[in-house]
Write a structure and sequence with these properties.
three-stranded mixed sheet, 8% strand, alpha+beta, 29 helices, four-stranded antiparallel sheet
């Protein structure tokens, strides 16, 4: 390297009598500064403080672009026209139009109940609470008002905002600019770029409009939410996609124990928010909300909206006006959609709903009976959606079967809807989970491992023996890039008892080896204690315990399944490990219910580690604190962990790996182990070092 730099023409200009020492010191100084800048950049990666800044730094260090290279080949006007068409509904003639207009008029005339007003003036505390969930560094609306202007404003400006919002509510009027949203067309993954329906519209709303939405949401959510059906789990307080997926899997497992077969339909709606019918939504709000003034304000906010659309190419469409639909990024939109479909028809099978993701399942011992029940309920559901101006996608609505009979592994359902046979899929994806016939989650965990592998690759680029990031920065990056993705992406309480979790564990162990710089022959049970990260299995048990405790609360989706007697469902399949028995066992095993699930998992980890009798147990006696030595430079941290584990370039290890002909040490000892090198060897033993200080570097 230095020999090549000597031949540089610029270096030849230096005088021969003084140039030698000068350029060598200059190059060493530059090399030192480059290493310091690299370490400073890598160690500044902190996902807990600013994930945007951390990802921006990672993209620069790894040479990846933060933006997608998929540009839009079609015009912005074409995409904007499609959005307008989504909300355009055909009328059924003059008489039908008269009846449709008469229904909301009659509802408006119904007198308001006394003592049920929710249109109270907004208080400064409510305004502060509405600002709290908003995230900075977001794009503004067409009024060019950034959120930071409001967050860092003084008390006088915030008081004026509160007065202005109260005036808007009192007069039932909002500024004209608030009705306009800048729509950004983002290409959908795995969609054709030249398809006008293959772009996701992202609405950039005005910041004051979003604050007003949150203020109204806080007033009406407590009234509307108790009136929503029990099976609706989307965008509701205390419910999540994990609860819904766990309920589905538990019902399927119960059918397996009852020797029944499961036929299911996963319904998909086309452009759900864009097709919301405003007149129908007004009728629903008038029936559920007792305050007519608040209903009038909500109708005023969602109606008469317009937008220009822009693409990543820089194209901008002309101004378009919408007759129906809800903005995609609106705070009120999920609650209004749940209100709009709150009267889903009663079906023969059990139905599940997470916002617009609908599922119908029928449990029976005969396939023909299941097909008949699903066919009848699809006709009922289709009529309901047609009356609400919602569009069911017959190409994306799929049928699926769940059973344990290998002889019928290729069994397909034939469900007819509108004279069309709905497509069958053996491994559909619903609520982020890839399902299979016998609930092994093999395909789901393979896709998750693929995602984790890409994150481990990023982590590997940040680590190096000389120029790598410190252990503290790498630990934070490992928790964010690998562990959070593995434990939260795909409903951990559902698949954590699958036999294929080893696919995830091996990838997590690769990340821990990068963090601790341990060699591959190092036992996997030593990696979490060296990294100071809780084992993945205990973390999953903690997630199961947390969901089990929430399932004990009345009103939870899993409450009936969790609290029913075990004798009502006979567990005849010992190889199956559904959620409810596992969670019940963990809840009964955890003595103190006041301890959080994460604290319980930490206590279990510390208890299990206390039973170890290995040499590493004497060096790191407790798991409750960070591993000693994490503040050391990367090179010292690497050597320290090799000494702690005893797996490294020692002759005993090299002989075991068939990389040397003898395990004897140069000093004449029969075996060169780490204890011999550190404590006994007269050649390699550090002088003046005790056993503890030699292994801990502290």
């Amino acid at each position: 390297m230095l020999g090549q730099r000597v031949r540089d023409p610029l270096l030849l200009l230096y005088p021969s009598h003084s140039g030698g020492c000068l350029w060598q010191s200059l190059l060493s100084r530059l090399q030192q500064k480059k290493q310091e800048r690299w370490e400073e950049a890598v160690n500044s990666i902190n996902f807990s403080h600013s994930s945007c800044k951390a990802w921006r730094t990672i993209n620069k260090l790894t040479g990846r672009s933060g933006r997608s290279s998929r540009l839009c080949p079609i015009s912005a006007n074409s995409i904007a026209l499609q959005l307008v068409k989504n909300g355009a509904h055909k009328t059924g003639g003059r008489e039908s139009t008269r009846l449709v207009n008469k229904q909301p008029s009659d509802l408006w005339k119904i007198p308001k109940p006394e003592g049920h007003s929710v249109s109270k003036p907004f208080r400064p505390e409510e305004f502060a609470a509405a600002l709290r969930p908003l995230k900075p560094r977001k794009s503004p609306g067409l009024d060019s008002i950034f959120l930071e202007f409001t967050l860092h404003a003084g008390s006088a400006l915030k008081s004026w905002f509160c007065y202005f919002f109260n005036s808007c509510m009192l007069q039932v009027k909002i500024p004209k600019i608030w009705r306009r949203a800048l729509v950004v067309a983002s290409p959908k993954p795995e969609k054709l770029l030249w398809d006008v329906k293959g772009h996701h519209p992202i609405s950039l709303l005005c910041v004051p409009f979003k604050i007003l939405e949150r203020l109204i949401y806080a007033h009406v959510e407590t009234i509307i939410d108790p009136l929503l059906p029990q099976e609706q789990a989307g965008f509701r307080h205390g419910r999540s996609a994990v609860d819904q997926v766990t309920l589905l899997t538990q019902d399927i497992e119960d059918s397996f124990s009852a020797k029944k077969k499961v036929g299911a339909l996963f319904a998909d709606l086309t452009a759900t928010y864009d097709t919301i019918w405003h007149r129908g939504l007004t009728c629903k709000l008038l029936r559920l909300l007792p305050d007519r003034h608040t209903v009038h304000m909500i109708v005023e906010m969602v109606g008469n909206r317009s937008f220009p659309l822009t693409t990543r190419n820089g194209q901008t469409s002309r101004l378009r006006r919408l007759k129906n639909g809800l903005p995609q990024e609106s705070v009120l939109a999920p609650l209004l959609f749940n209100t709009y479909i709150s009267d889903l028809p009663t079906t023969i099978p059990r139905k599940y709903a997470y916002a617009d993701d609908l599922a119908i399942m029928h449990f029976d011992g005969d396939w023909q009976a299941a097909e008949g029940a699903l066919r009848k309920d699809m006709a009922t559901l289709g009529e309901y959606l047609w009356s609400r101006k919602l569009k069911l996608s017959t190409t994306k609505t799929i049928s699926v079967v769940f059973h344990l009979n290998k002889k019928e592994a290729k069994r397909e359902l034939k469900v007819i809807f509108n004279n069309e046979t709905l497509p069958f899929c053996s491994e559909p994806k619903y609520l982020g989970v890839t399902w299979d016939r016998s609930l092994t989650y093999h395909r789901n965990l393979k896709s998750l491992r693929k995602k984790l592998t890409s994150h481990v690759t990023v982590l590997r680029r940040l680590a190096g023996s000389g120029w790598g990031a410190g252990a503290t920065a790498l630990r934070t990056a490992t928790l964010t890039l690998v562990h959070s993705t593995a434990e939260q992406a795909c409903c951990t309480p559902v698949w954590c008892r699958s036999a294929h979790t080893r696919l995830i564990d091996s990838t997590i162990n690769d990340a821990l080896r990068i963090l601790t710089a341990c060699l591959r022959p190092t036992p996997a049970d030593k990696l979490p204690i060296l990294a100071g990260i809780q084992p993945a299995e205990l973390h999953r048990s903690g997630a199961t315990l947390s969901l089990g405790r929430r399932a004990m609360e009345p009103g939870h989706l899993l409450h009936s399944a969790f609290t029913r007697p075990s004798s009502s469902v006979a567990r005849r399949l010992k190889s199956r490990h559904p959620f409810v028995p596992a969670a019940q066992q963990l809840v009964s095993f955890s003595d103190n219910s006041n301890i959080r699930a994460a604290q319980w998992a930490d206590h279990q980890w510390n208890t299990e580690w206390a039973d170890y009798t290995t040499r590493l147990r004497t060096l790191i006696p407790d798991t409750s604190t960070h591993t000693p030595g994490m503040t050391l430079p990367r090179r010292a941290w690497v050597r320290l962990n090799l000494l702690r584990t005893g797996v490294g370039h020692f002759r005993s290890c090299l002989y075991k790996w068939v990389m040397t002909s003898s395990a004897a040490c140069e000093c004449g000892a029969e075996e060169q182990t780490v204890d011999h090198v550190v404590l006994q060897c007269p050649i390699h033993r550090p002088l003046g070092q005790s056993r503890k200080s030699a292994y801990s570097f502290s």
